[in-house]
Amino acid sequence: MESKTTRHGSRRRMYLRMVAGSLIRRASRLIIAVLAIAIGATILSGLVTIYYDIPEQLGREFRSYGANLIVLPRGDAKITRDTLKELRALIGDNKIVGMAPYRYQTVKINEQPYIIAGTDLEEARKNSPFWYVEGNWGNSEDTSKVMAGHEIAQTLGLKLGDSFTVQGVKYGERAEASRQDLSAEENQKRDSARQNFHRKFSVTGIVSTGGAEEGFIFADADMLDELIGDTFRADVIECSVIADANELAEISAKIERDIPDLMPRAVRRLTQSQDIVLGKLQALVLLVTVVVLIITMISVYTTMTAMVAERRREIALKKALGAENNLVMGELLGEGVLLGLIGGALGVFLGFEFALRVSLNVFGRGINFQWALIPVTIAVFIVITVTASIIPVRKVMDIHPAIVLKGE
Length: 408
Fold this sequence. Notes:
This protein is of the alpha+beta class. The protein contains 13 helices and ten strands. Helices cover about 55% and strands about 20% of the residues.
């Protein structure tokens, strides 16, 4: 005797064959329906990918406008190399675009006082891509080459390749201590140990920013420490961090808690502008997504209505042979599920290609494929096709076999 499980299995196989056969017999309409769903799924998955990728991409774009986090020493605390390493580890390398420490030292050129800003030139370049540099950026390999601010270059009549001599005082090992921190005897020893230095530099680049940077000479921080006979001590750290206003506030609070010698200060002008633009872009993406979903539902509704209308005689014949409304409706809804499955799966991969092209053309950067979008997109479009099919499929209940088969 045939078991209950075997009978259910046979019915499922028969049901799947009926659904597949019905779609195959209507291949042209099937292709149109699948394309409509695939286009909707492509736009949806592409926009969702862009939606979640926009914060990082936009954050990187805003970083071209300068640092968004300034870190200062608290009180008499010193920012050392160890402090820099601790700060970088706390923020995370994946969030840091650039982290440039600056140390400012007054020197004389032609007996006039000017300020040298010692920094990590490579990190400063990452922080400040908006700087216009005529010539080349300096580097740590050739410390005899520096960048001069446009204002200083004009005052001293400097051009690219020109040389100039810097004068200053080298105190030796106690340079990091102020006179107030030392005893009279120690100050006397310090003054007797100080030496005048002369160092020749050449101009490798001229910096134009329209700001205070034009009044500085930019050099390698290690070279400056060696020049004045001091250990590294930064006056400020400029950080370019990929984060919105809330994330930046969390990072600042974490810095204050874990590194009490530092005072973080967010640059509100940049973070607020970033949040405003980001909010508007994400709202636009959501609006377009909703519109696409509505259009897809209308397309599926129209397709299913046409399929039910052209199959009136087939449906009437099935009902005349004893098929119940639920069975016929289940077959039609099964076709809708299959359409959603095929169109959704196709749209996921086309959507990634769409999002990738948008990201490359707009931001000039690639994106990562979101594997979680595969089941989510397919599930969404199965729900959409089933929802859009309910009203047309319910019309099966209005089909009367006797009237339809008589041709009325």
